[in-house]
Amino acid sequence: MKPYLAVIFLRLSHAVLSIIAKYALNQGMSYYTFSVYRNAIAAVAFVPFALLLERNTRPRMTLAILYKIVLVGLLGPVIEQNLFYFGMKYITATFAIPIYNMLPAITFVLAWMLSLEKVNLRRLHNQAKVVGTLVSVGGAMVMTLIKGPVIEFPWTKHKMDIGAKHQQNLTKGFLMCTTACLSSAIFFILQAITLKSYPTQLSLTTLICMVGALQAAILTLVVEKDDAMIWSIHWDIKLLTYIYGGIIGSGFTYYISGIIMKQKGPIFITSFAPLTMIFVAVMSSFILAEQFDLGKLIGAIVIVVGLYLVLWGKSVDQRSSMIHKEDGATAPTQQQISATNPSMQVSEKDSPEMVAA
User: Domain EamA, which positions (predicted)?
Assistant: First the structure.
């Protein structure tokens, strides 16, 4: 039950981050410095725990592991975060998040290709995983494409959509968020691979955030070299976004995701991505006064159905794996049988005597 609650917490925290980040972007926050500050804060927050709790278990750093960490830090903290929040400047939160519901399908295909996920389409539970992934993506598309009548809530009446006054470019925003989604899928796959050779998750999380912050800082200095004001920090919504995005959005997300991936693989993590859409749709109606229509409600129901199918298929996989492990542990070998039953051992010398008798 704990992995399920943990992933739901991650989805909820991602939804909260999307809402406050959208508001901060509307107030002029730079998505470049957001990536730098949030990952720097995460690294500073997690490095004491990594040094203290994993000092005796941390494996030796090799060049191959370092290459993987640098690539993971580039994919997640730099490419994915910058592109996603760059795209969110041009579209609403309830339009950006549904794009991420392609994440389960992309991750599923990549994990299948890299043999991280075993799929036998002749088995019913494997069919359920495939169908459930497609249904969840379909539900996300329903939320995005089908509008229907607006569902009025008491808290949305007579309120202006905060995001409406900002310029929107659906094409640019869609392309940026879609590319970010692809980068996120590769990030999860590579993180799962890196965990096999560097299994100390606190240290790995710290290194990912540290390397990501460094690469993001270099990118920001190159792209925004003429605008020093974007580095300024004040007591406002931007600072709250930096801190929350660093500790929760980067640090805890990478750490908890890594722990769960060790147990259940990257597919389990990304299968819950459609839940973020539901959380964002509800919260954005409160905070950003974005409209909630019938299409979003129907899509949310479809997403839940697809998620249930995927989770059912994964649970059958887990039970089968546990049964195989138990069978392998309890099945006696021929040597064990011989050792525990000496009377069954018949030597070549004893055989003629027994026949003669």
Answer: 3-144, 172-311
Q: Which domain holds residue 215?
A: 2-356
> What is the pLDDT at residue 353?
45
Six-digit token string for 312: 């059912």
Q: What angle do CA 261, 249, 61 make, to 5 degrees?
A: 55
Span 203-223, pLDDT tens digits: 999 999 999 999 999 999 999
Where b means 16+ CB within 10 Å and e means fewer, 95-118 reads bbbbbbbbbbbbbbebbeeeebbe
pTM, full prediction: 0.77
DSSP H/E element including 74: none
Residue 83 half-sphere exposure toward CB, CA atoms < 13 A: 20
Instruction: Fill in the DSSP letter of residue 150.
Output: E
**Residue 247 is encoded by which pair of tokens?**
């500790």
Q: What residues pair up with 292 in beta bridges, in sequence order?
A: 151
| Residue pair 6/262 in contact by the 8 Å Cβ criterion | no
Q: Is the dihedral of CA 116, 117, 118, 121 positive or negative?
A: negative
Count how many domains the chain has.
1
- Token look-up 């409209």 returns 291
Q: Under a CB-based contact definition with an 8 Å cutoff, are residues 42 and 250 in contact?
A: yes
Q: Which residue has the higher pLDDT, 300 or 190?
A: 190
Q: Which two tokens stand for residue 335?
A: 């040597």
**Residue 293 DSSP class:** E
